[in-house]
From TrEMBL:
Residues 739-1010 form the Beta galactosidase small chain/ domain. It catalyses: Hydrolysis of terminal non-reducing beta-D-galactose residues in beta-D-galactosides. The keyword GTP-binding does not apply. This is Beta-galactosidase. Keywords: Glycosidase, Hydrolase. GO terms for molecular function: beta-galactosidase activity; carbohydrate binding. InterPro entries: B-gal_small/dom_5 (IPR004199), Bact_Beta-galactosidase (IPR050347), Beta-gal/glucu_dom_sf (IPR036156), Gal_mutarotase_sf_dom (IPR011013), Galactose-bd-like_sf (IPR008979), GH (IPR017853), GH-type_carb-bd (IPR014718), Glyco_hydro_2 (IPR006101). The lineage of its organism: Bacteria, Bacillati, Bacillota, Clostridia, Eubacteriales. Its EC number is 3.2.1.23.
Amino acid sequence: MKDISPTLDWLENPEIFRVNRIDAHSDHWFYERMDDIKLQDEMPLKQNLNGKWRFSYSENPSLRLTDFYKEDFDVSGFDYIEVPGHIQLQGYDKCQYINTMYPWEGHDELRPPHISKSYNPVGSYVTFFNIKEELKNKQTFISFQGVETAFYLWLNGKFVGYSEDTFTPSEFDITEYLKEGENKLAVEVYKRSSASWIEDQDFWRFSGIFRDVYLYAVPYTHINDLFVKTDLSDDFKAGTLNATVKISGNIEGRLEAYLEDSKGNKVTETLTQDISSASSNGELNLSLKIDRVNLWSAEEPTLYTLYLLIHTKDNVLTEIVPQKVGFRRFEMKDKIMCLNGKRIVFKGINRHEFSARRGRSITKEDMLWDINFLKQHNINAVRTSHYPNQSLWYRLCDEYGIYLIDEANLESHGSWQKMGQCEPSWNVPGNLPEWQDVILDRASSMVERDKNHPSILIWSCGNESYAGEDIFQMSEYFRKKDPSRLVHYEGVFWNREYDKTSDMESRMYAKAADIEKYLNNDPKKPYISCEYMHAMGNSCGGMMKYTELEDRYSMYQGGFIWDYGDQALYRKTLDGKEVLSYGGDFTDRPTDYNFCGNGIVYANRVPSPKAMEVKYLYQNIKITPDKNGAIIKNQNLFVNTDKYELYYKVEKEGKLLLEGKTKVSIAAGEEKHVELPFGEYNCPEEIVFTVSMHLAEDTIWANKGHEIAFGQKVFERKEITKTSPDSKLKIVYGDVNIGVHGKDFKVIFSKQYGGIISLRYSNKEFITRTPMPFFWRAITDNDRGNRHDFRCAQWLSATYGLKCVDGSIEPHDDKIILNYIYQLPITPTTTVTMSYEVSSDSTIKVTVAYKGVEGLPELPVLGMNFKLLSEFNTFSWYGMGPDENYIDRCEGAKLGIYESTPLNNLSKYLVPQECGNRTGTRWVMVKNQKGEGLKFAYEKSPFEFSVLPYSNMELENALHQEDLPPVNFTHVNIIGKQMGIGGDDSWGAPVLPEFCIDSSKDLEFSFIISNI
C-alpha cells in the first residue's frame, strides 16, 4: 500500500475522493464451513466494531486535535459516542434541515469545490480492539458501510486511507497495520468537503459514522466478487444462470457451483471448474440451466440459492458463498417496460432511510416495519431517494418482493435551481471533467455492491442535478456494465440535449393532464413519475387522476409518491416533553422548516390517513359489486386469485345482515363476474354490498385475513314517511330571546346573536356558544404553498366578522321556523341564511343557505360549528371511514359505522392544519361517558363533518402539535361542502377545479339535530 501523507487539501479537491480504498465488490456473504451459513451476516470471519467509541468534537479543522490518532495520544479525556449514529443526534453540533439551497447560504460566499474554513465540524473517533481468533493470520479488511461526508483513517498511528461518498461502503486492506494485542483505530470525520456540493439532497444535514463498521478476513482463496445474471427462454419457462466469479489470493483448487430452490432441493447438476483456468484478473465464468424455472416478481418473489464452493487441490473445502438468485427478465419492448414479458406498472413511493430517533442510522427493525407496511398497502416499488440504502434493504426487497430504482448518491440541486428557477451557470457536475471521475466512482460503488439483487430493475443517475456530459457518461457506464437493467434520470427534462441519458421519460410533479398530453403526442419513451403526489401534511388529494392513466395508456407505467415517511426528529421541550420537530426547531438557519414532513407515514412510524387512499388506488384487484355479485378484475401480472379468499357482506344502514366468504379462481390479467348470494332487499333503508379480497394464508408480511382489495356498492335509501308527533310546542316570546319548549327539551334562540344560545335535552345543556356558519378552514400545507391564504383571505373575515342583519319567525301547529340572515364582510358582499325548523318531536332541522355572488375567490368550505364542552369526548358516525377523507381523497374510504374520539381524530401532521374530515356522512353522534349527547343526521344529502378538540383558529395559529392549547371544548363541524386538499405539489398547485367550490353559485345544505 502506498505510503501517503494525508492533507486537508483533499477536502476541496473533487478529483481526490478515495485514497487506498479498495475497489467496490458484491455484497455476498462467505463462510469456511457449511454449518455457518445459518449465521447469515454474522459471519465468523467478520468482527463487529459497533458500540461506544471515544470521541472529540471540533467546530472546524483548526480546532481539532491533530495528533489524536497517534498510539501514545491519551484519549481518556474524550467523550463517548455511539457508532453507528449521527454526531448531531448525540449532543454535538446542531441538526439542520435543508431542501435545495446549500446549508452555508448566507454564512459563506462559496462556489464549488470550496468549503467553509470557519465552520466544518470535525469528529475525531477512536476505538480499541483485539482481533478475534478467526481473523488472525488472514488478509483483513475494514469496512465502513456509511460515513458522512469525508473521513481519514489511521490504525496504530499509521495512515490507512481517505474516502468520500456517504452512502456506499468504504473498505481498506489493513492487514499490514494490524498487530498482536490491542489495536488503536482512529477516524477523523468531516461534515463538509467538495462532496457536499453533490450531496445536496432534501434531508437533514448530518455527519458521522452512521452505518455499521466491521472487520472481515478472507480465506487464502477467496471469491472477491460475483456477478450473477439470469436469462430466460422466450416462453419464460426455462432459465439460465450466468455468473462471473472473481477469485483473489491463491489461484488454485477447484470451484463447484449448483442451485437449490427455496425448499432446499437441488435443481441443477454440480458444475466444477479449475480455478487455475481463471483469467489474468482472476475471473471465471460459469453457467447453469433449469428446464422449469419459477420466476421472480414482486407478486411471487421466488428465490433460488446459488452455492459456490472452493476446494483446495487437496480437496479441502475452504469457502462457501450462498447467493440468492431471482430469475427474471426486465426489458424495453416496443417502448414498454416489461417484466417477464408483461407490461409493468410501478405503484411506487420514494423512501428516505429515516428514524425519528436515529436519523438515517436506521435499524433492521425499522426496515422490517417499513417493508411490511409497503406490502400491506399494495406498494410494489421503491425509489431509494436519493442514495444507495443499507445492503440489508435490498435483501429484504428480494425476499418480500419490492421493485427498486436504485439511485446513485448525487444531487446538486442548489447549483442550478434557485427559488424554483433554472439557472445552471455554475452547475456541478455538468460538463466539468474534474467532476466526472467522482460521480462515476459513485455509480460504480453502487452497481458493484448491489448488482446481484433481482429487486433492482432500474439504475438511477441521481436526483435533481440538471444534465450534462458527466451524468450522460454515468448512464453509459450503467448500460455497459449491466445491460439487464434500464437507466433512469429525470434531470434531462431541463436540458433535452442529453435526452439519451434516460431510457424513460421521467418528470417530477407533472399534472395528470400534462402527462396525458405527453402520452397523446406519439412519445418515444414510456412515462413514469419519479416523484408525484407531494404528501406534505394533509395531502394526496386527486391521486386517482394519476392512477386512472394506468389503464388508459400502456406507456404510462406508474409513479413514485413523494414520499414514504416524515423526516422529523424527536426533541425535548423545556418541560421535558418529547415532541416531533422539524427544520428551524434546532435554531438551524438557513432551513426549510416543515418541508421535511411529506410522508404517508408519520416520523414515529404510525400510518397517516393518506395511507388508506394509497392502499386502495394501488390495489391490483379491482372489485365492482352489483346486485348479483361482483365484477373482479385481476390486474396482477402473474398470480391467480386462488391465493386469496373473497369476503362479502350486506349491511342495512351500517348494520350487518349477511356475510360470507368463498374462493374464486381468476388468472392474472383476467376479468370475471362472480355470483354471490346477496339476496333481494326491497326496503326503504340504505343497503350496502361490500366485497373484498383477503390473504388465504399467512405470509411473511401479513397474517391470513389481511385485506388487499375491496369494492362497495351503495343502494341509496328511499324516502321514508315521517310520522307527525302527538306532542305540542310551547313558544315563549321575549324581548331578546325566543324559547321553544317541547317534551323533555328546550331551545332558546337569541335575537341579539342570531341563533341558538341554549339547547337542552333532559335538562342537559349541550352548547357553549351560538352555533355559527363558517367559510374558512385551518389552512393546509398545500393551501399555504399555493397562497390560498392570500387569495382567499376574505373568507377568513367572513367567518369571524359576519353580522346578523335580519330575522323572522314562522310558527306552525307542530313546528316553528326561525330564519336569520347574516351579511358577510367581504367585497362584493353577500349573505348566508340560517334556518331552524324546530319540531314537536324534539328535532331541529337546520338549513344553511349561501347566496352566490360573482367576483369572489373560491369558497374553502361551507359549514356550521357547534362548540360543546370537552366532556363530549366520543363520537360515532355512519359515513365514509375509518380514516379522515375529503372529496378528492375518499376513494379508499368505506361506508360504515365507526367511532373515535376528538383527540384521536386530530391528525398528527407536523404543523397543525385542517384535518379529521369525513365525507358521505349519514349521521354522527357526539356523546359523553354517560351516553348523553347530540345526533346530527342528514336530511336529503349526506354531509361532511369533523369532531376535533380545537377550533380552526387554534389549529391555524399553532406551528407544532405541542403549541396547541389545553383541551376545553369539543368542536363539531357539520359541513355541506369542503374543497379538496390537493397534492400535485405543495408550492403552487391548486386544488383541481372539480374539487373546488364555485363562490358565484348558490349553495345549500340541511341536517337534523336530535337527542341521542
